[in-house]
Design a protein that fits this description.
There is one protein chain. The protein is of the alpha/beta class and about 170 residues long. It is built from 6 helices and 5 strands. The N and C termini lie far apart (about 35 Å).
Length: about 170
């Protein structure tokens, strides 16, 4: 329950900050399956500041819609810094938004490896204003718990990072 309230409060605060700046946001999601977009659109008035989302569960969607390099998918895997940065950049361009978040991870219960255990999630946050270059920050997280818990932690952290990014840009 506390996690749900935290997610809801973060989404509400994000919406308020985006609305003040007249900015638009978007998401590119793999392991969360649209959970970030769902949290955002649960906020009344989200249509004023949310453009849309791409749930890119399959690598084909990452390549075809988000312009992720097939070579990087093969070399580094979908759960990697290289891929999540390209997902963020790709969805930002696709949606013509100011702020984007992208997530790719292993929510479990299966799919983990010694190198990338269950709970490994890469998150990237991207920002662009008009023709300015895209600024992208990416971090790897190691969340714990079952699939739902890993997904909820990813959603919360994705929203936290978006809010921090937006607030770093003065009105």
């Amino acid at each position: 329950m506390a996690g749900e309230l935290d997610i809801s409060a973060r989404a509400q605060s994000l919406g308020e900050e985006l609305h003040k700046r007249k900015w638009l946001c978007t998401t590119a999601e793999s392991c969360t399956g649209g959970g970030i977009a769902a949290a955002i659109t649960a906020v009344a008035g989200a249509s004023d500041w949310f453009e849309g989302a791409v749930v890119s569960y399959a690598n084909r969607i990452k390549r075809d819609l988000l312009s992720v390099s097939a070579e990087d998918l093969e070399t580094f895997g979908a759960v990697s810094e290289q891929v999540v940065r390209q997902m963020a950049s790709g969805v930002l361009a696709l949606m013509d938004a100011n702020v984007a978040v992208a997530v790719s991870g292993i929510a479990g219960p299966d799919g983990g490896s010694e190198e990338k255990p269950v709970g490994t999630v890469w998150i990237a946050w991207a920002h662009s204003e008009g023709q300015e270059p895209v600024d992208i920050d990416a971090r790897c997280f190691h969340f714990s718990g079952d699939r739902a818990r890993v997904q909820a932690q990813t959603v919360a952290e994705a929203l936290r990072g978006m809010l921090t990014l937006v607030q770093a840009h003065p009105l």
